[in-house]
Specification:
- The structure is a single chain.
- By secondary structure, the protein is mostly beta strands.
- The protein is 8% helix and 53% strand.
- The chain contains 3 helices and 24 strands.
- The strands form 5 sheets. Strands 1, 3, 6, 7, 9, 15, 16, 18 and 21 form a 9-stranded mixed β-sheet that branches. Strands 2-8-4-5 form a 4-stranded antiparallel β-sheet. A 4-stranded antiparallel β-sheet has the order 10-24-12-22.
């Protein structure tokens, strides 16, 4: 490779309060990573539980009628953390009149600059990025912004494959029974993701059992209870953490981006405040604040930094050695592949998505 080059596919653009923006990918060099950035600003009230991820309902990479990648904002954040091992660039604030932004990196190789896996626009007919969003009522009107950048590689032959991540099924959990998700058999699997975002709940209670089987049980790839899956996440991926500006009212529940929140700290941003937080297994932290006179605080600005597992309430099961394609799960060898999930709690927003090495086109 001769060089990296940063290409601005869409300069920072103020977009409507809702809609779909289509951006042409008008470069010829292989792209090792695409970055999609989105910004919202809070209106004149505290904006709890409506982070910028919740605004974006779909990010798609398409070519004509074919969809290569498709995730919503929360799914894209989870994918980015598992790809990078750290939180994507973000500034979260629930403080009135303050803004929040995030940058989602779509990495098409095992690492930046991967010569074997990258997105090659020159192999496509009309490659495009499509972003769909709708701001929350707690966000200010006419201030949403979107931008898209590409990191391209010069002096590299266009790879014929790219790592693509796409949602297979989305649903609302019912709280009982077994959900069967039919998975694709067209390409191998590098990673399998499944998430359940249940308000005021704990990821370990939303689902109680996971089973991946092929050809009606002729091969069981894994069968795990929820605690076994959570332990696998900890020993495989370790802890995640991020930082946010929060409005502390004494005893308020604050939504985190973690499926299992193990610890954290809370620091006063300014003012006369004594703050504390209760960080337990659920994805919520309970925040407490008083002033030195003992009076309970309302909407006190503070810095929250939680630490835990499963970003955006998402499990990620890796197949084989992550840098060795020969060891990835050989899905085309089977006639049917099903992920069977036993549900334990209702009203969770659930989805299953898969990362695969996809041929271009």
């Amino acid at each position: 490779m001769d060089n990296y080059r940063e290409v601005e596919l869409l300069s920072r653009k103020t977009v409507g309060d809702s809609g779909t923006e289509t951006i042409d990918i008008n470069v010829n060099e292989p792209i090792t990573e695409l970055s999609v950035r989105f910004y919202v600003k809070n209106a004149t009230a505290t904006a709890r539980s409506v982070p910028v991820e919740s605004v974006v309902s779909k990010i798609e990479l398409v070519d004509g009628g074919r969809v290569y990648a498709s995730l919503n904002g929360r799914e894209a954040t989870a994918m980015a953390w598992y790809d990078k091992g750290y939180w994507p660039a973000a500034w979260y604030s629930e403080i009135l009149s303050e803004g929040s932004r995030i940058e989602w990196p779509f990495q098409f190789g095992r690492y930046l600059g991967d010569p074997q896996f990258a997105f090659s626009p020159s192999r496509m007919l009309n490659p495009q990025i499509k972003v769909t969003w709708a701001k929350n009522a707690l966000h200010l009107t006419s201030v949403c912004t979107l931008e898209v950048n590409a990191k391209v590689m010069q002096g590299v032959a266009p790879p014929s494959k790219a790592l693509m991540t796409k949602v297979i099924k989305s649903w609302t959990t019912l709280g009982s029974g077994i959900v069967e998700v039919d998975l694709p058999t067209d390409h191998p699997y590098r990673r399998l993701y499944f998430r359940a975002d249940e308000a005021a709940g704990y990821l370990g209670n939303a689902w109680t059992n996971f089973k991946l089987e092929c050809d009606t049980g002729s091969l069981i790839v894994f069968e795990m209870e929820d605690d076994e899956m959570m332990n696998l996440m900890e020993r495989t991926w370790g802890m995640a953490e991020y930082q946010a500006m929060v409005a502390v009212s004494n005893g308020v529940y604050t939504y985190t981006h973690l499926g299992a929140c193990h610890s954290g700290y809370l620091t006063a941003f300014d003012g006369d405040a004594v703050l504390n937080g209760r960080f337990t297994q659920p994805g919520y932290a309970i925040l407490y604040g008083i002033n030195v006179a003992g009076t309970a605080l309302t909407d006190q600005k503070a810095v929250l930094r939680p630490r835990g597992l499963c970003p955006e309430y998402t499990y990620c099961y890796p197949f084989g050695l992550q840098d060795d394609p020969a060891t990835w799960f050989k899905a085309p060898n089977y006639g049917s592949i099903k992920l069977k999930i036993t549900e334990g709690a209702a009203s969770g927003l659930a989805s299953v998505f898969v990362q695969q090495p996809v041929s271009l086109p």
